[in-house]
Amino acid sequence: MARSGAARIAMTAAAAFGLVVTAQTTAHADPRTVDAVFGGYGEWNADPYGTAPGDSIRACDTDADGWSIEVKLDIGRDGTWDRIATTRGHTSPYCTPWKTGNIKEGTPVLVQVANVGGDATYPKGSVLLSRA
């Protein structure tokens, strides 16, 4: 009898541990920051966190260097920019509001962060591959 009681306790403890691990892995994470080559960064937020809505991007310009920051989101990674956040026309330091819209869970996305000025885009940029 003592042996089956010990087995029940062990199974209950293992099940409780499994719930804790599952809860930790499904918890919402901070927005992911993607640095521009210089002067700012972009953010991608797959799930709501604090005041940041889910499935959202924003651009942040941190240096008054004549360049703006542009963040583009390609939903489904099909080569079409579906959402753009840009700091063009704003004085640095400046972060755009979150650009958001519902994306089906698990959908692959591509986030590109680039420096832009006038009609020019700095030839190098940063890319993040993620999922909604």
Helix content: 10-25%
- C-alpha-based Rg, rounded: 21 Å
Enter the CATH topology name: Immunoglobulin-like
* Overall body shape: globular
Percentage of β-strand residues: 35-45%
User: What count of helical segments does DSSP give?
Assistant: 1
Backbone structural class: alpha+beta
Give the terminus-to-terminus CA distance.
50 Å
Class in CATH? Mainly Beta
Number of beta strands: 9
Give the name of the CATH architecture.
Sandwich
* Average pLDDT figure: 83
Poorly predicted tracts of residues: 6-27
The largest sheet is: 5 strands, antiparallel
Q: How do the SSEs run, as a string of H and E?
A: HEEEEEEEEE
Number of domains: 1
Keywords: Signal
Signal peptide: 1-29
Organism: Streptomyces drozdowiczii
Protein name: Secreted protein
List keywords for this structure.
132 residues, alpha+beta, Immunoglobulin-like, five-stranded antiparallel sheet, four-stranded antiparallel sheet, 41% strand, globular
What do these coordinates show?
This protein is α+β, with helices and mostly antiparallel strands. The protein has a single domain, classed as Immunoglobulin-like (Sandwich). The protein has one helix spanning 2-25; strands at residues 32-35, 40-45, 56-61, 68-75, 83-86, 94-95, 99-100, 108-117, 120-131. The strands form two sheets. Strands 1, 2, 3, 6 and 7 form a five-stranded antiparallel beta sheet that branches. The radius of gyration is 21 Å and the shape is globular. Residues 6-27 have low confidence and may be disordered. Residues 1-29 form the signal peptide. Keywords: Signal.
